[in-house]
C-alpha cells in the first residue's frame, strides 16, 4: 500500500516516521510544482533540498509531460519515478461549441505548464491565448508576438 501525500512537509514527516518505526512503506507525492527563483544561490539550495526530499518518494505526480521530463532531468533521481496527469481530468470539446472571434483562452498561474502546446492548440482556433505566469523560462519555447 502506498501513502499518497500532497506536500514536501508531509513527505519529510512520513520519511521520519519510517525511520522511527523502522517500517518501510512507499510514499507518493501528488501534485508537485517546482518554480525557480532569481538568485542562483537560492535555486541551487532549493534544488538540493527538493532532491533530498523527493528521493524519499517512489513516485511524484505533476501536471504536464513538460514538467515530468523537466523534473526527471533536474533532480536526476534513480529510484523516484516522475509521472504526469491532467489536472481535473480530460475534457472534450462539445460538437455544438463554436469559439467566438472576440474571445480568448487565459492561462494564469505558476510556471511548469506546457505553454508551447497550449499556443499550438489555440493557433488552430480564431481566438488568442493570453498567458500570465511567474517566469520567462516557462515561455522560452513559445513564439511570442512582437510588441
Overview of the structural elements:
The chain has 4 helices and 6 strands. The protein is elongated. The longest helix is centred in the N-terminal third of the chain and has 15 residues, at 40-54. It has a 4-stranded parallel beta sheet, covered by helices on one side. A two-stranded parallel ribbon has the order 5-6. With 147 residues, it is α/β, with parallel strands linked by helices. The protein has 2 domains: 3-84, no CATH class; 92-147, no CATH class. The termini are far apart. Strand 5 (104-108), helix 4 (115-122) and strand 6 (128-132) form a beta-alpha-beta unit.
Question: Which sequence of strands runs across the widest sheet?
Answer: 1-2-3-4
What is the domain total for the residues? 2
* Number of beta-strand segments: 6
Task: Give the biggest beta sheet.
Answer: 4 strands, parallel
Number of helices: 4
- Helix/strand-derived category reads alpha/beta
Write the layout of secondary structure elements.
Elements (H helix, E strand, L loop, with lengths): L2 E3 L2 H14 L5 E4 L9 H15 L4 E4 L2 H11 L5 E4 L19 E5 L6 H8 L5 E5 L15
Parallel strand pairs: 1-2, 2-3, 3-4, 5-6
